[in-house]
């Protein structure tokens, strides 16, 4: 619950911090207004970390640049056309604060693209009224601190509610990306979205199509990196927005009839995501959110709808949904302009997420464990987490058996890695030595021999170069 007194104290401390105080005094001396706006005010009131500071002013960009240049070690005006001047301002203790100062805005939109017709405004209240949500439409006036809240942001902070400052149809019609931000803030702040705002998201869901894939990707990444992405994902699915941006997720809600029974794949996937996040925190405390892992958890079963087969007797199968899902994920992530490393890692994790379950049915040989590690490569730790998170059965005995089996495979991997430095496994003979032993030149035969020796190493471990040469000659003779 919001402690208003403590929040106001934090705002007061922010206003009197040396760098903020210097900026406030400089603008006042030049005859202009200055205020901290948006997220920093919200986060200070909530007791969340305040990182980048955003300021708003009635000064025009040229005037802002003239005021901040004497105070800053560096300035930049890449956002000048939108009224924004950036600056790096040093403090008395040798630290720096990177700030952005934007002229009050009174933009309008054409309803066809997200690009606003830039217009500068004259009042702080007018600037705040055009922002995304009431909880971000607050400001702290400087240099004498005063909270400005024209749209009821404090009340919504107390109530844990996200709503637009004005008519949500107008707000989302101006900028459809705000609908995705609603889901992101729901996940970050743990807030509910006001009913009329949710209804507007559902009505205007198709307008998200005018937003570039890169911007959609950016909001999806921020949602997945939040404390509770499941809350935001449910909102996107329930309003139909997810069907516009990642339709494979709502498609997981398979119909279940009275004759064929299987898990609710959609709910299962959300549970896997939540459990993966818990394991991520448990195994890597304090580290940044692993968005790649979370994407894989959310999408790991998207191949099921396309591979579902209703079996005689009431059974349901999803043969090869891992392979199908990996291809589907690759295609969707490419459409959203994810980078190649993320696409490769997510599709690999989805393709391999079922491999472990063969281990639980019978102990693997050391050779099989080595192959599991080799195939996972640098995704091994993520595969550990995803596979463990994929156990959502309510059968405690089965869950305990699977957990014990995975404990065992991780133990064996650690032992093998310690014995053989498994991460760097190579055949005991390199390509040049293979050619010398067999008396051949470069070509396919060298590659085949290399693979033979690699399998030999995986199956039997280190046998020594002399024994490796002997086995290589025997293999070569048998091929002739």
UniProtKB/TrEMBL annotation:
Q: Name one GO molecular function term.
A: nucleotidyltransferase activity
Which CDD domains does its entry note?
HDc, NT_ClassII-CCAase
**A Pfam family per the record:** PolyA_pol_RNAbd
Residues in domain HD/PDEase?
A: 261-404
Lineage, top-rank taxon, reads Bacteria
Q: Which metal ions or organic cofactors does this protein require, according to UniProt?
A: Mg(2+)
Kindly list the biological process annotations in GO that this record carries. Answer: RNA repair; tRNA processing
Q: What keywords were assigned to this record?
A: ATP-binding, Magnesium, Metal-binding, Nucleotide-binding, Nucleotidyltransferase, RNA repair, RNA-binding, Transferase, tRNA processing
> Which PANTHER family does this entry report, sorted A to Z?
MULTIFUNCTIONAL CCA PROTEIN
- Please give the name of this protein: Poly(A) polymerase
